[in-house]
Amino acid sequence: MKINIAVCDDEHRYAEYIRILVNKWANENDIKIKIDMFESAENFKSAWNKNKIYDILLLDIQMGGQNGVELAKELRGTDSKLIIIFITALPDFVNDGYDVFALHYLMKPVNETKLCEVLNRAAKSISKTATAIFVPVGGEQLRISISDIMYIGSLAHFLEVATTKGTFTVKMPIYELEQQIGDSFARCHRSYIVGLRHVDKITKTDVILDDGSAIPLSRRLYDEVNRALILYFMGEES
Predict the structure, then answer these.
(1) Are 151 and 143 in contact (CB under 8 A)?
(2) Torsion sign over Cα 100, 4, 14, 28
(3) pLDDT given for residue 130 in this prediction
(4) C-alpha–C-alpha distance, residues 125 and 182, integer Å
(5) Nearest to 144 by CA among 153, 133, 152, 136
(6) Any residues with CB less than 8 A from the CB of 167 and at least 6 apart, and which?
(7) Rounded to whole angstroms, how far apart are CA atoms 64 and 51?
């Protein structure tokens, strides 16, 4: 799983401090992240309106221009999934945090342990609710529903992501995409990953998908794929 994080704070030195803490948390917990910095609500909105890729927003309340509370209310008008964590030096806005369903309200100076606790909660929430990923296609970030992915194949420096709505060519390493899609997939070959929900049957040499596609199955991965398939459908039925 990869988590996309935005830090929005017009105080550069403090924003950099938060960035360092977040990177430290990610490294210590072996979590892959991408973190982007924004110095104003307007800058963040411009990026968000182009591409809603962020999972977590660490948001300062007191900023020049539009403040953090106003930004959060505007974001909640169109999105309920973005995890908002307020950061501020004043306790006067706590009730506003409840109004926009903020995950937490951190006081400056931010305590590292407390920040890590909140990020752990956020990561757990994301892993439970993640339903889509964003992948680079044709110079843009394309949103693909995880449940639509039938298989992923590695072709030289590109990936072929086959979905129920079409096939897309993506330039990224297969291991990187594998980290994002969760445990409803299985590696069946050095160059292929299959979506377990789309598997119809497996033979000694292939994984047969529900559209009739035959994906190569490595001999050494046969038992592992078989076990993953059984566990997946047991979980689906429970």
Answers:
(1) no
(2) positive
(3) 63
(4) 14
(5) 133
(6) 160, 161
(7) 24
Q: What is the pLDDT of residues 126-142, one digit of tens each?
A: 766 667 888 888 888 88
Closest CA relative to residue 140, chosen from 50, 56, 5, 49: 50
Number of residues in the chain: 238
Three-class secondary structure of residue 22 per DSSP? helix
Host H or E run for residue 44 = helix 41-50
Assess contact for 166 and 138: CB atoms under 8 A: no
Separation CA 38–CA 59 (nearest Å): 10
- C-alpha neighbours within 13 Å on the C-beta side of residue 185: 24
Write out pLDDT tens, residues 192-201. Answer: 999 998 999 9
Q: Which residue has the tokens 């221009």?
A: 65
The one-letter code for the residue type at 58 is: L
Give the position of tokens 């938060």. Answer: 18
Q: Can you list the residues of the chain whose pLDDT is less than 50?
A: 237-238
Measured distance CA(39)–CA(31) in Å, rounded:
25
Q: What is the pLDDT of residue 78?
A: 82
Decide: 151 and 215 in contact? Cβ < 8 Å: yes
- Long-range CB pairs of 133-137 (<8 Å, 24+ gap) are 133/177, 133/180, 133/181, 134/4, 134/51, 134/53, 135/161, 135/168, 135/170, 135/172, 135/177, 136/170, 136/171, 136/172, 137/168, 137/169, 137/170
Strands of 166-170's sheet, edge to edge?
Answer: 166-170, 158-163, 149-155, 192-195, 185-189
